[in-house]
From TrEMBL:
Organism: Gluconacetobacter liquefaciens
Function of the molecule: Catalyzes the formation of dTDP-glucose, from dTTP and glucose 1-phosphate, as well as its pyrophosphorolysis.
Keyword Signal recorded: no
InterPro entries xref list: G1P_thy_trans_s, NTP_transferase_dom, Nucleotide-diphossugar_trans
Domain called Nucleotidyl transferase: residue spans: 6-242
Catalytic reaction annotation: dTTP + alpha-D-glucose 1-phosphate + H(+) = dTDP-alpha-D-glucose + diphosphate
UniProt cross-references to Pfam families, sorted A to Z: NTP_transferase (PF00483)
Name under which the protein is recorded: Glucose-1-phosphate thymidylyltransferase
Length: 294
């Protein structure tokens, strides 16, 4: 399947909250248990049926992502690459990729976000199928002041969006996964840099909110969202993945498995990928999936 929606995977920044681990590498290349961090948001985009994906990162880090991911053919998808010379905000991604998007609807995933849910694929495909407007996902957290926060009115409709509020009006944080219609790049051009000099994704989402076309989906019980941008969260993400995989025997964040489940590649292609990592548990599980054991 191919929804016609394009995907942007934003894997830039200097990872200062993870220094010294990120002094010599991108944080999105750090391991989250048995896979590079970037595999998790990549898998999420693929679960939405997205097969045309642009990876945006720093000029220094782009060659490493090319080496890791290649052109995408092994996963039955297409990868493009583009540099973000300086970290000028999440919404800048839509200006960097504007000509590549070519007025197509798109999804943006942040490279340090992990979302896990049994019904994630259906949720993503539903968002990608929306003809107009934008869809974001909210998750209840204990520290909403770290994120963009969405408030709701008495009828449960989104009523306000505030970026990193000192006194949050709601415990619902907007996660690093966003779906937009074909107007997103033109809307991004309307945004002005915030006080910290960035083009804020919250300001972009507010444009859709104010015109009444922002859909906010709450990720409730049975869902997990982890922002692995600080050491504690990075450790928690790794432990979460290890627990799910060892206890339930299912994979989390494997682009190869998702490609097979989505019909992007066949069993023979999956065996080839498994054969490239024969000494790992990940390789064994992929091989079992290809052989029909799972």
């Amino acid at each position: 399947m191919d929804t016609g929606t394009k995907g942007i995977l934003l894997a830039g920044g200097s990872g200062t909250r993870l220094h010294p681990m990120t002094l010599a590498t991108s944080k999105q290349l750090l391991p989250v248990y048995d896979k590079p961090m970037i595999y998790y948001p990549l898998s999420t985009l693929m679960l939405a049926g997205i097969r045309d994906i642009m990876i945006i990162s720093t000029p220094d880090d782009l060659p490493q992502f090319r080496r890791l991911l290649g052109d995408g053919a092994r996963y039955g998808v297409r990868f493009s690459y583009r540099a973000q010379p300086s970290p000028d905000g999440i919404a800048q991604a839509f200006l960097i990729a504007e000509d590549w998007l070519d007025s197509a609807p798109c999804a943006l995933a942040l490279g340090d976000n992990l979302i896990f849910a049994d019904h994630l694929s259906a949720l993503m495909q539903q968002a990608a199928a929306r003809a107009s407007g934008a869809t974001v996902f909210a998750y209840q957290v204990r520290d909403p002041e770290r994120y963009g926060v969405v408030s709701f009115d008495a009828e449960g409709r989104a009523s306000a969006l505030v970026e990193k509020p000192a006194n949050p009006a709601s415990p619902w944080a907007v996660t690093g996964l966003y779906f937009y219609d074909a107007r997103v790049s033109s809307f991004a051009r309307e945004i002005r840099p915030s006080a910290r000099g960035e083009l804020e994704i919250t300001d972009l989402n507010r444009i859709y909110l104010e015109e009444g076309s922002l859909q906010v989906e709450k990720l409730g019980r049975g869902c997990a969202w982890l922002d692995a941008g600080v050491p504690d969260a990075l450790l928690q993400a790794g432990m979460f993945v290890q627990t799910i995989q060892s206890r339930q025997g299912m994979l989390v964040g494997s682009p190869a498995e998702v490609a097979f489940r989505m019909g992007f590649i066949d069993a023979g292609q999956l065996r080839v990928i498994a054969g490239e990592i024969p000494k790992t548990e990940l390789g064994r599980v992929l091989r079992d999936i290809a052989d029909g054991a799972q």
